[in-house]
Amino acid sequence: MLEQELFALTDPEQLKQLIAGHGWATLITADGAAPVVSHLPVLVDEPETGSGIAVVGHLARADAETHRLGEHDAVLVVQGPHGYVSPSIYGTGPYVPTWNFVVAHLHGHPTVLGADATFDVLRRTVDHFEGTRPRPWSLDTVADYAQSIAPHTTGFRLEPTRVVGKHKLSQDKPRETVERVVAALAGDDPHRNPELADAMRKVMVARV
Fold this sequence. Notes:
Blueprint: H1 12-21, E1 24-29, E2 36-45, E3 54-60, H2 61-67, E4 74-85, E5 98-108, E6 111-112, H3 115-130, H4 143-149, E7 153-158, E8 162-168, H5 175-186, H6 194-206
Antiparallel strand pairs: 1-2, 1-4, 2-3, 3-7, 4-5, 5-8, 6-7
């Protein structure tokens, strides 16, 4: 991914918020053969070193074996809000269409977790996503069944050695133009995207 200082997302707290709010990630590994790609839920975890960020996740054991997880480095991609921006929103130009987005690439060597730690990740994952429901469901509701199928999953932990975060949110445009885009995405534009509009608004406020 092209790294540009203007769009760099480096603050650990903002990166944690990105992961916590968009926990469906893409795991990529390659050991000299064809790349292996999986999609899986991840959670923010407490870092043990000075990296400032760590994640845990789980995937089907068969997928973990295909990745040969834990044997070599991996990249975990967390995609935040994103969407198309039409030049017709900008006003006076010339302008061309663009795609605004927030994303983070976490590079590092995953650690495969044991059975107990994997089950803890499963429980935490359920608690995290159930937490916004009026009556959260608990894995303990089907504890015996959950324990019986848990061996078919593999938990892992990744404390990245390199993080490339990017939030390309029209920082290269005049404030008036950004305000028009935010208003359009938050309103009734055909490409309406309130979450992206909110991300742009936060960056715009931070620029003041």
